[in-house]
Amino acid sequence: MIYSGVNMLMVAFVFLGCVPLVISLYQFLLIGLHSFKNHYPLTGCHFPQVSILVPAWNEVNVLDSTIESLMDMSYPKEKLRIYIIDDASTDSTPDLMKKKMTKYPGNVFHIRRHKGGEGKAHTLNHGINEVLNESWSEAFLIMDADVLFEKNALRKMTRHLRDPDVGAVTAYIKEGSRPGSLMTSFIDFEYITAQAASRRAQNILAFMACLAGGAQLHTRENLLAIGGRIDTSSLAEDTFTTFKTQLNGRKAIFDGNAIVWAEEPDNIDGLWKQRLRWARGNLQITKQYSHLWLNKKMHPHLGSISFSFIWFSILLMPIFMILASIGLASLFFLDFPLSWKLFKMFWILNVVVYVFVTLFSFLIDPISARQSWLAGIVFPGLISLCIIILSYIPGLLEYLILDNEKHLNWKTLDLTPMVIILLMYLWLSLSMVAAFGAKVIEKVKHLKWLSKPMLLISGYGPLLCAITFNSYISELRGKEMKWDKTEKTGKVQIKS
Amino acid sequence: MSDKETYLKELDEDLKVEKKLWIKEIFVFLVLTLLVVIREVYLDEWFNFGA
Predict the structure, then answer these.
(1) Which site among A257, A351, A390, A405 would you substitute to test the B interface, given the most B Cβ atoms closer than 10 Å to its Cβ?
(2) Residues with Cβ < 8 Å from A362, sequence gap 6 or more?
(3) Which ipTM score applies to this complex?
């Protein structure tokens, strides 16, 4: 009886491991509906007076091109004001700003804090306080200092504000580093899946998990309704703003055709710092809005089952992967044939999701896919990719590992197949450890060269899972909320 | 070109992009179906690993 209870629990663990796959597939299945259900019929030719708020701390490398790209946009110049909110930069930002204000009088402004270093949200609030006091602004574009806007990006965002129910609009942020790297290729592909695809699905479901912090446009009414300030209590201020916008009864819209370009980290360490901040912010939000989950009374869409499933399938992904590994490894000893069946079922599901997500992502954004198709293919990691291919061909795994013998018990296996099978069962968790290893090795002077092959073997997806797992530890330890700035070098380019 | 005309032109282009999404999705479905058919009907027979 106890034996069967443990078995069932382990089977349940393996099924939990399937949750992120199913949710991912669910989102991708919805995307086709965006052809028929989108916000475009409610848009209009609309050019509100927009104040662009650019928080900047020692960003002189990127500010010049950012300001030039903003002034180059096809948007009426008399309706555009750019505020560089200088967080007490110690570089030559003030000198650059003098030049830019002379070049673009009435369009470019410099707001300087004399004491900075408190992070992006505090810097933004300093600027918002000053700009909101004047009645000129009808909308506010909050962006990052390194983001370059395509000429028509802002006008494609403002058209949605014609609908009075819209509180905020976000654009499609693409990775634009030139020259690129393995890491930027991974991010490039990730942004197709996480933005161009997933946010379209969220448009369909009438909720938005996060307005991209690098390009979010708010109406004046919305910014005032959320308190006229950006939340400073968490590390994910943009997600807080998104939640507040929707909880106040306004829509948050994603426009996948409004494209902006950003410089993203080009090494594991940089990515780790950035994503750890995001993941910790998401945990803080989960806690702060604990009353919201699965509570339609709080909000019809944010309180829906779909939103909770999507949110938690990402937030708890490392736990799901670890549980699936534990389930498979335990069943290996308890009921080997069952463990083998479940293992194959899990990976067949992986094959379906992998093919669907990867191929559809390539088709959704073929321009980005041309740059990052290889990263898209090896996104799960080379070992996982091998298991995916082996699972696809019927009988091949049994032929290679089990030698087609009917094994009813693990004790009848030779040592080598036993070790291989256990490693494959545990790979969902081990891949995260390997990804963490790639991060550690990147900092070791003589072994640095090994970090890229290790990342390729372990995969980018497991790397993100490892970072999320790190965020649990940081939050449990109550680690200080430190704003680790992502270094920008100014190598971003518009690649249209 | 006036702002209104530009808006309509851009809207038309963007709607075309969105309208293609369901066709792309159907294409992905077809590829997936083809892969399933190949797996279930042909691969087992060709490679005969299960024998």
Answers:
(1) A257
(2) A192, A369, A373, A376
(3) 0.93
